[in-house]
């Protein structure tokens, strides 16, 4: 979306026009009506006879018509005045009026637009008049101090927004109040008992809280016996003074209200917003209460009406963050999104692959960038492997992503090993200090990672984008909207707010969440503006985003946020000082942060996940490590099975068979070995099977346990070798063999004792490549398809395993395609069966579908060709794609021939 770059003067002129229009409609119209038609109030009340006489006599002088026009004019003006007054009050109160009936709704919409324009223009004009000293003071207020954190009332930037809700000064006798979020299990009686020392004073909390504007979707507080999770209450910020007569009198035992006997009931909407179960939750499992600063919710400030940061504790504490070797620290949510991006990249790569016409392909694949690969492995291990759950395939991840809802919260970091989240809608967050850019980079990168399918949008001016992602290629990333300047971004945000307001008005829905549910086809992504905003633009942004919790808009500022929450960060993204509604909840937290290099690598993966072109990959087979020349202690990720042809004595089968196609298992003549094999030993067996010429200890450690403490990896390796030998000796009864041979500093499986199924497949692929006649090729390719029983090392999340898994899938798919070409003239039905199996192995390979459609048509099955096209369309929906022009043209051509 391209938006022109209006200046502030243009905005002031536009607002002035709105103000002038309002003045004309409110004052000019009645003046003109009075001058032309007179007063709408009659001199006397006519009798029924006079009314009947006027209605029955002919209207020859048009007096009755003109009177009706005058009455309609005055009525319309009165309706407009009432609508203007109501919209002004609701605008100042931060609420949206319900839609009026159709005849008067245009008046309401006109009044709403005029009020919004005038309000916005006044805030823009205020930015012009902000003195330099005020900006300096705002910046100075965000600097860290050695004393306690300042409350919002001590910050001059907060004073215009506090109003009557400001906390009392120390010299007053009124107690200081703070806002608290109700959690499941809370009652007014228990809160009063903790605040006052006696639950009988719960009525004070009720009286002080019933006027609070509750967050969207949370019921108002109308009954002291019925409170719901998510409601906001005002409670004293500290215990009452000793000697308070009223407190001492209330300490005697009294009957608690019904709310103490009937605990709070969950409100489903808010429970879902907080990301916890709506029922059957024990109070001890509720997130730790986070109390907002002692500021009562002023109507004009958006953030106090949003939920406080939530801190979720679970059995997986400490598992919500991932530290990369570069020092970057990210959340498990970003790691999951990057894992999906890697899967989508591979699926798009499969879609583009064209089978070689001359030989079985030996093409290899460019692995994902190192930070992305590390994040993906951490996600798969923590989510699936550590819980003994099967790792989903790339296709499963893509299919599950279709049902993922738009992100409504962002996880900023952790405090006490528990994640801290803030709602994106209504977010007004400013970051200052040495770690500001790294933390903002983590927030924006996670939002972009979750942006596909119109779920989220990052709006960022070009200068801020260069500061956050230096040297990155930002074109082609889904969900990223770049603007030349901050003024352009502000205009875009304003236009989006107006657009969503009108959509909500038309659909009669209260917020964007409800609008998405009512019309899922309307793209309404959660929109976040990230920018470096000077102090003079704060008022403009505040005016736009004061209803942002309703419209799904938020702002992230690289600098102080006078109308929101400002955090001061150290170089490791620890919050040392905070100001604003969520200050108390965030002080001491450590936010996620990203280096520029890691962030740029992640953006590259997000771009390729959309099917963007990648660097060309080599088509030269990469040989296995040669022990005669490869003595480097680095992991050789170039090993494949194609250059090694095992020498197997078929008359005397080895006593051990290692299965690596599918789940990794060991077998003897008596059956599978089901006990005794450790997980580390199993992983090492698969890695050794992939490298029959042997690997060094350093190579194995780097490939398998790079994330472990370097001081323990040697012990882990030795323990795995010992476990393999002990288990195989016990299973075979042979005590002398080593099974894993150690010669010349390299470890390899003993080929005379351990037979590997993948090596038979490698030999068949090599045989198909070297066959000289069609008959030999058909025999070799048929053997390839018979030997490929499952994917390589199913359930392994290592990069080398995933790379070889993709290689074998493509090699076998190419073998089936080649076999179909050899059979299609003499045995077309067998050729079609081979192609259909190839599609089963790779359901996204679009060229395969075209070949099948052509062969089906040649066999006289045009209906089957159409079903094949529909099957392709269904699969491509998973990766948010559709058949390309070549496939569509083929379908049209086949239909014409039909």
Topology summary:
Blueprint: H1 8-37, H2 48-56, H3 63-93, H4 105-129, H5 132-141, H6 159-162, E1 177-181, H7 188-196, H8 202-209, E2 232-236, H9 245-249, H10 258-261, H11 268-273, E3 310-311, E4 321-323, E5 329-331, H12 332-352, H13 370-383, H14 394-401, E6 409-415, E7 418-423, E8 428-433, H15 436-449, E9 456-461, H16 462-468, E10 480-483, H17 486-507, H18 512-518, E11 526-531, H19 538-545, H20 548-551, E12 553-557, E13 565-569, E14 575-579, H21 583-586, E15 590-591, H22 596-608, E16 656-659, E17 665-668, E18 671-673, H23 679-690, H24 697-704, H25 710-732, E19 740-743, E20 746-749, E21 754-756, H26 757-770, H27 774-787, H28 799-823, H29 828-841, H30 846-858, H31 862-877, H32 885-897
Parallel strand pairs: 8-12, 8-13, 9-10, 9-11, 11-12, 16-21
Antiparallel strand pairs: 1-2, 3-7, 4-5, 6-7, 6-15, 13-14, 16-17, 17-18, 19-20
Helix pairs in contact: 1-3, 1-4, 3-4, 4-19, 7-8, 12-13, 12-14, 12-15, 12-22, 15-22, 17-19, 23-25, 26-27, 27-28, 28-29, 29-30, 30-31, 30-32, 31-32
Family: Belongs to the AfsR/DnrI/RedD regulatory family.
InterPro entries: AfsR-DnrI-RedD_regulator (IPR051677), BTAD (IPR005158), LysM (IPR018392), LysM_dom_sf (IPR036779), OmpR/PhoB-type_DNA-bd (IPR001867), Sig_transdc_resp-reg_C-effctor (IPR016032), TPR-like_helical_dom_sf (IPR011990), WH-like_DNA-bd_sf (IPR036388)
Biased composition (Pro residues): 290-307
Report what the structure shows.
- The chain is an alpha/beta fold and 898 residues long.
- It has 5 domains: 8-42 and 64-129, no CATH class; 169-286, no CATH class; 321-608, Rossmann fold; 621-809, Arc Repressor Mutant, subunit A; 810-897, Serine Threonine Protein Phosphatase 5, Tetratricopeptide repeat, CATH 1.25.40.
- It is 46% helix and 10% strand.
- It has 32 helices and 21 strands.
- It has a 7-stranded mixed beta sheet, with helices on both faces. Strands 3-7-6-15 form a 4-stranded antiparallel beta sheet.
- A hairpin with a 5-residue loop joins strand 16 (656-659) and strand 17 (665-668).
- The protein is globular, with a radius of gyration of 35 Å.
- The model is unreliable at 1-6, 126-174, 239-306, 312-318, 357-362 and 616-650 (pLDDT under 50).
- Residues 290-307 have a biased composition (Pro residues).
- Residues 178-235 form the LysM domain.
